[in-house]
Amino acid sequence: MISYYIDMEGIIILGKIIINDISTMEKKSLDISLIEEDKLDLTFFNIDEEEGNETLKALKQSYVTTNYKEETILNLQKALNSSSDDTSKELKLESYKNYNEALNLANKGYITTSTQLIEKALELNPKDTEILNLRGLLKLLKCDFSKAFESFYTAMCYGNNELSRKYVDILSSEEFKIFLGRYNHSIRFINEDLNQESIHILNNIIDEDPYLIEPYVILALIYDKMGDIKKKEHYLDKLKKVDKDNKLFEEKKEYEQPKNKKSKRKMHIIPYVLLGILLIGSILYYINNKNKIDNLNDELNKKNDELNKTTDELNTIDKQLNETSEELEATNQKLEETNKSLEEYKNQGPIVISEENAYKEALSLKANKDYDNAIKYFKYVVDNGKHKNYISESIYQVALLSEKTKNYDQAIKYYKKYLNTYTKGDQYYDDAFYQLGMLYYNLGDLPNAKNTFYGMISEVPDSMYNNSTVKEILSK
Asked: Is the pTM of this model over 0.70?
């Protein structure tokens, strides 16, 4: 039972628990005589049992994780098969120093530097469960879920300790899988240029769990991309409260100008100094004038050399430009031939290509923002496809791109087509509900917007889209 990290509404709250667990971790003794030799019992670990772990399946589908399963198993196998299982006391002592410093900095809010130090500690002492657990906690705060799971799972295999098992259970829970789905939705929306939708989800996550670091980083980057400097600074200020040394903060080095120290001279030597300066000045005046003339001549010679060199460079550039122009002309000619062939192909009748190629062409056109032609190819897949994954994706994309091109009737038609064709188990089911409801609302059709959102609440009551925006619209 892991209900101690879930609030009354069933929302997972990780950050507060992580911060508390870090604060209760104890520093390691730096007395080398107290350091014990490695005597780990690894019989607890069984690779075959890991295959059925639900967390591994959930994280494998994540946009924000990579081959966590293979990495975890590979790391553990290397440790098990290592010819040298023992870590020297000297290396352990060095790892303990890094661990203690990482723990100290983490408690002060310097999570980035703390994470770097714990990585050094782990490299020196890879089987220490306390180091693995602290690394897992820091990676969770950074929203690096795959590395966090790897650390806790490895620590559990080495020591089967209470803290690592607790977080393996948390990351295996249904509640965390729901949270991870919402987090991944925010990343997917960014990839689809739906910044406002991503912002909405990330703000909800921050409201629920203000200690997680990455949502602030992503929001600052989104607003930077959008050119909203005020909002960017707002989230950078919030980020500084949870990770004071995050890489987003540029270090400003202030250099103090050295102060000129004036030598104290006695008053009676000033006349002699002035006389000496006048004498030296008169001598230097002649030398200076002569040097100026010589320098001017040298400068003129240099300028002539540079001018000749520049002329040669210009000739070379001109030659390269001529060659480039010829290549461009050849390319343009090929492009004209290709366009001509395409026009002839279009005039021959409808698209006749494979379902997969049509889908890939549609994605390519969408990436190039050629939405009208992308819609044609997606429609071709919808009308002629045989595989559900291509057809369902294409229906949703036609709706989405039609909305982008302000063909709202067609967008409504295809959102409804998706909802009437598929069920809540399909990828874009609640997305289609939400997009259709918001489209109705933005078009001023409040009754249809409310009907759509009521349908969403009925069909997918646990959807992340059942948020404050939807509740506000339904209350009107």
From this structure: no
